[in-house]
Amino acid sequence: MKIAIVILNWNGRKMLETYLPSVMQHSTGDVAVIVADNASTDDSLAFLAEHYPEVQTIRHEENLGFAEGYNRALREVDAEYYVLLNSDVEVTENWLKPLVEYMDAHADVAACQPKLLSYVNRNQFEYAGAAGGFLDRYGYPFCRGRLFDTVEADNGQYDAPSSILWATGACLFIRKADYWLAGGLDGRFFAHNEEIDLCWRLRIMGRQIVSLPDSVVYHLGGGTLPKGNPMKTFLNFRNNLTMLYKCLPDEELRRVMRRRWLLDYLAAWQTLVLNGNFSDFKAIFKARRAFKKWLPEFREDRERIQRSRKQASIPEQKNFSLVWQYYAKGKKSYSALESR
Known about the structure:
Layout: E1 3-9, H1 13-26, E2 31-38, H2 44-51, E3 56-60, H3 65-74, E4 81-85, E5 89-91, H4 96-105, E6 109-118, E7 133-135, E8 141-143, E9 146-147, E10 150-151, E11 162-164, E12 171-175, H5 176-181, H6 194-204, E13 208-219, H7 230-247, H8 250-273, H9 278-294, H10 299-307, H11 322-328
Parallel strand pairs: 1-2, 1-4, 2-3, 6-13
Antiparallel strand pairs: 4-12, 5-13, 6-12, 7-8, 9-10, 11-13
């Protein structure tokens, strides 16, 4: 099989009903569509059996989260390319063609993503991946088309293919060989930052990640854990710190972690004082405690990742502070960033 589109589902019957038709209509050729179900308690599987009997299903006995849910499912899938596709993504005609053609022609590229636009505001980028992702020097993710909570309109400004640090997990097109070469998603993360962690590990190994805006999909976003949910805040902070510990080179690790200690506690107090959000305030403190507690189990991971390093620095991990550029200098778009 050439391409396996794998949709992870958890109580998402309404999502499948809304978005699966576009996937079935526009994903033709040597392509299989597979739904991996994370122990749903709704009628998702009954809906698929009745309306889409051609869709393969993989059933988990428990909710394994995004990361381990995909790992377990993909172990059962034999295809040259995997597409990890969120259940709330509407695809467009010929969306696969630019992705597979580019990957076939560029053996050094491990993964790519399409341009991700908002399903609700269709002329605007979507938060989760926009036109491809990067990290600043302190581990804050941003995209061509999205800095923190500022999302740009799509005016064609990022329509050129680009090397990126990470491709969105909402629509991640990746070689099976590279997925497993890097060890897959880190199942301990459960959800959030897991695709950044995977792509960063691949870049450390010398593999390339690319954004290909000739392919376009529309993403609803926030379907499982909406913005403002304290669990989402907890997972984002804990997993981001863990990813930094695993992937930063030795000469940067201590300096970055010291600065992040300060920045995280400033973020917590800002959340409380400016937004009055006590739940997120507590979630940030809880995340830092959880990171410290489980840090020892990642030491071997860090050693293995550092041994795999092919280059001292990665250009897509930028050497500036996004916090400073965004809040102090007022840079609100990717194209306005200095030394990007």
